[in-house]
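debug: dumping io for the single-chain case to check the tokenizer round-trip. Nothing else runs in this session.
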Amino acid sequence: MRIFRGYQHRDLAGPCALTIGNFDGVHRGHQAMLALLRSEAAHRSLPVRVMTFEPHPREYFAPDSAPARISTLRDKLTELQRCGVDEVVVLPFRAGLAGLDAHRFITDILVAGLQVRYVLVGDDFRFGARRAGDYALLDAAGSHLGFDVARMNSYEVHGLRVSSSAVREALARGQMDLAASLLGRPYAISGHVVHGRKLGRQLGAGRLGAGRGFRTLNLRFAHRQPAAGGIFVVEVHGLASQALEGVANLGVRPSLEASDINRGQVLLETHVLNWPDALACEGGYGKILRVDLLHKLHDERKYQGLEALTEGIATDCEDARAWFASRHNRTHRQTTRDRI
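debug: decoded output
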């Protein structure tokens, strides 16, 4: 999959089948739209192209009331690639784009810039300055300028409309099973492992052995308001040949001191419950990991002192182990029933 910042690139020359949207989360509704786009593109022998925006337009206009972010740009692009997209055009949402009227959005970007031959949009699609453009305007322009336009109705799962808003609501409530149902996969965050204060190695060292403690793998979440937050039971992918069980904190770590080098940044701090001996001397720094958030234990808590923090983490680890044990038992019982 090729990724372009902006639409004025020589390598973007040539007609395409296009869809446009924020694609936050790339949920099952998005996936259904992309499947339809792939089918239409194949029928026309066109590449599948997606136009998305960074930041989210509402983050530009009203950052304090913008919707919480489900996914980082990295995770969005990963899922778009998994859905069979050939090219992604990431438009930086700035003043020039925000003030571009709907007609010029069509003529300058869609026609002259991207040479669209087929455009697929959602049933609530709006575009251009003051959101003046709609499906009717786009369809009329397509008839005049020589490209086909189609729209896809809402996608439902068990009677629930699948949308980024529905995913955000599920994540905000800690309903990870519902979020996974809407996404078609466990909710996950990926990124490079970065350095922290290494305080976790000291916490609980007496319980776990010198230098081990509650060491964590730290991933930055590049937005100040994630859709999820709190303490989660997780699985870590990319550190070993198999998924590793863990417990993670997603948030701003209210119990840490003002001197914390990452203070104010949203971090996903993951403690692997059974750190592999082969990785005992590694911190994972620089590796790209994916962490699946499977079950929420509780919201972030502010502990009074390191001893209380240590006890809190130990309890979270015990609860995570109990959750994994329960899942294993459920899976074993289901497997036994299937054999019978």
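debug: round-trip ok. The chain has two domains: 2-161, 186-339.
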